[in-house]
Amino acid sequence: MNASYVSPWMDEDLSIFRDAVARFVEAEMVPHDEQWRKQQCVGKDIWRKAGDMGLLCTDISADYGGVGGDFRHEAVLYEETSRRGISGFGQGVHSICAHYLENHGTEEQKRRFLPRLASGELIGAIGMSEPAAGSDLQGLRTRAVLDGDSYIVNGSKIFITNGFLAGLIALVVKTSPGEGAKGTSILMVETDNLKGFRVGRILDKMGMKSQDTAELFFEDVRVPAANLLGGAPGQGFYQLMGDLPYERALIAVAGVAAMEGGLAETIRYVKDRKAFGKAIVEFQNTKFKLAELATKTHIARLFVDDIIAKVVAGTLDTVTASMAKYWVTDTQQEVLDECVQLHGGYGYMNEYLVCRLFADSRVQRIYGGTNEIMKELISRAL
Ligand SMILES: Cc1cc2nc3c(=O)[nH]c(=O)nc-3n(C[C@H](O)[C@H](O)[C@H](O)COP(=O)(O)OP(=O)(O)OC[C@H]3O[C@@H](n4cnc5c(N)ncnc54)[C@H](O)[C@@H]3O)c2cc1C
User: Fold this and answer.
1) Distance between CA atoms of residues 126 and 84, nearest Å
2) Out of 53, 81, 297, 350, which could bridge 259 as a Cys pair, Cβ 3.0 to 4.6 Å?
3) Which atom of ligand 1 is nearest to the CA of 136?
4) How far away, in angstroms, is 135 Cα from ligand 1 center?
5) In this model, does residue 168 exceed pLDDT 70?
6) How confident is the model at residue 1 (pLDDT cuts 50, 70, 90)?
7) Could you list the active site residues?
8) pLDDT tens, 207-245?
9) Residue 161, ligand 1, Cβ within 6 A
10) Which domains does the chain carry?
């Protein structure tokens, strides 16, 4: 964190947008976060409110009901929630779901779904992981068999962000099980009144307590063939690979914002808290630690700003996205761990922001492709 540094992608319009987003997050999210954490879910109302405010699908074309901005607008929303520890509102996954449609959907699919995602009527989710297939997606078992003008889906998904609230799931299925990657497709599944579809329990997690991460079950579920993303079967892997850098960029954006939020809170705390007759900040160890944390956070910020510029320019490649995802989230945990340490026992209490940020941060190294898988991807290109 460097107080005099302003991200080069920020401009006057984005500053006004950021102020509006920050006010919205402070008024509509922060006061409810404790309740959301207790009920393991943010509820549907906040999605409608965010849609009304023009905060959903900000980088989706206005032709399809989006805001018509770009990735900088997505980044602003993610930063303003992440720095305040608001981790239950799964706008990242929602945006990714919208991007699959915008990048790969048929014209009819875009017109049918995108305006409803932008308004918050539909909450989006990505259904990839299964009990026996996480990193290794070749092991997917959920099957979709064509029967007349619909697919019959059987299988289950696990760890699905927004899984409890989702009205639209980009569901990764096997359409030709014998054909490996070529037998994989994405079905856009509308969940409302869907016979044979069941949401399991909301999973009890180490952090991200207000996020409705859930298990999903499909038993002879009929999905119109018109909902096959892009219209042609067998395109799933290609569609996934194309959009994963976007997902990893969002994770890195959230990571650096959490570091900045945690560090700012820690600086405030150590100036206030006293021990041995002086403020904690007076100890040389505290000053040196803060200097280290500020330096790490600033490096992460520069890296993420470069990533944001690349997404806007359409030049973010898989390797750079993987580097950002792995390095920023590893550094996020180091930084937030020290923030907890500098808070002493209070840092271990959930009512303190750094405690929640630290617990929430752990999964950043796991989802969106584990950091080990990121290193695999990077090393292959060396
Ligand atoms: C809170 C949360 C939210 C999530 N949200 C979603 C979601 O919205 N949609 C979705 O589809 N999924 C979601 N996931 C799932 C997530 O993407 C997977 O958990 C992740 O990809 C890892 O898969 P796995 O859990 O099966 O672990 P495994 O693949 O079993 O991995 C276990 C360990 O082995 C390591 N490993 C595996 N393969 C290799 C290799 N080739 N080389 C080196 N090490 C390896 C991994 O890095 C890891 O350390 C979420 C998970 C969590 C916890």
Assistant:
1) 25
2) 297
3) 29
4) 5
5) yes
6) low
7) 247
8) 999 999 999 999 999 999 999 999 999 999 999 999 999
9) yes
10) 12-121 (1.10.540.10), 125-234 (2.40.110.10), 238-380 (1.20.140.10)
